[in-house]
UniProtKB/TrEMBL annotation:
Family: Belongs to the peptidase M14 family.
Top-level taxon in the UniProt lineage: Bacteria
SUPFAM superfamilies: Zn-dependent exopeptidases
Protein name in UniProt: Uncharacterized protein DUF2817
Single GO molecular function: zinc ion binding
Domain (Peptidase M14): residue spans on this chain: 26-311
GO BP field: proteolysis
Length: 311
């Protein structure tokens, strides 16, 4: 993105206060329905899953109940697999990839793992196609003590409620997208909100994964990349050997310090952790292909984790 204009809210170089946040919120509009797209599928899944309501968004609790799907045959001796989607509500295939996995593929793991699936962590963001919540807070930087995002706080409370799961989670896979609007809207908005200059970047064309800098599992990440490559193309490194400014450590894999950044994928001590990044704006992608890529990532991740749980 070149020749960009200042973001239309706030004063360049000055962080937003409450008036700017209210102005930003007033610009957001409902563009799709959480009830129609997500809750109807969850209702259908009650036949085969234990459905847990683990909270409601405080600004509109009637409209935004929060649900997770728990294996009906939960056994305390089995490892736990956590699948999360829609932490950034606008990242559509994360939500529908989690639901597709739950509906069509999860039965294959009965008796092998306990599954916990939170398919739409940020339902207001889903409806408004937004990265932030109503307070202009990023839920995916808010998986921290005394979280400023109710979406993140509720999911962390769920993990504490279901069981003392932190040391029993074998795998956590968090389903995301990188979109063209990251560069055209969301990163400029972030710079404006924080009173910082916007520095343009590039959006990679293809799928990639984010590993944990502090506890990397490169072979695991590569196994997931190999599986997804059978469905869609993998993002190449740029001329500097990077994807979104981070060094590529293996084809299609970069690293972030998950816990210190407050990212969802760092909320447990799982041995295997990853964040998927689908690119839905590619001319080589379709909405269905993006969902299939997310499902391929989940199934490959579980397969690898089960095969290497004691390694």
């Amino acid at each position: 993105m070149t020749g960009h204009s200042p973001y239309p809210i706030g004063t360049p170089g000055t962080a937003w206060g409450e008036p700017e946040r209210k102005t930003w919120l007033a610009r957001q509009t409902l563009q799709r329905r959480y009830t129609d797209d997500v809750l109807t599928i969850i209702e259908r899944l009650r036949a085969t899953w234990t459905v847990i309501e683990y909270g409601r968004l405080p600004h509109d609790p009637a409209r935004y109940p929060l649900f997770a799907l728990k294996s009906r045959d939960w056994r305390d001796g089995l490892p736990v697999v956590l699948v999360t989607g829609g932490v950034h509500g606008y990242e559509t295939s994360g939500v529908h990839g989690a639901l597709r996995f739950a509906e069509r593929h999860a039965a294959a793991y009965a008796g092998k793992v306990n599954l916990l699936v939170a398919p739409c962590v940020s339902p207001w963001g889903y409806e408004t196609i937004q990265r932030w919540n109503v307070d202009a807070v990023d839920p995916n930087r808010s998986f921290v003590a005394n979280s400023p995002a109710p979406e993140s706080a509720a999911l962390m409370a769920l993990m504490a409620l279901v069981a003392p799961l932190r040391d029993r989670v074998l795998l956590h896979i968090d389903l995301h997208e990188t979109t063209d609007t990251d560069e055209s809207e969301f990163r400029p908005a972030l710079a404006a909100r924080d009173g910082k200059p916007f520095e343009p970047g590039t959006i990679p064309d293809g799928f990639y994964l984010v590993d944990d800098t502090e506890r990397p599992q490169t072979a695991f990440q590569s196994a997931v990349i190999d599986a997804v490559a059978q469905v869609t193309h993998i993002a190449p490194a740029d001329e500097a050997g990077c994807i979104i400014g981070s060094k590529v450590v293996a084809p299609g894999v970069i690293e972030y310090p998950l816990q210190s950044l407050g990212l969802c994928a760092g909320m447990t001590d799982a041995k295997f952790r990853t964040t998927t990044e689908v690119y839905p704006d590619s001319p080589r992608a379709t909405p269905e292909l993006c969902v299939q890529a997310q499902v391929a990532a989940v199934t490959a991740a579980i397969g690898y984790a089960l095969g290497h749980r004691d390694g």
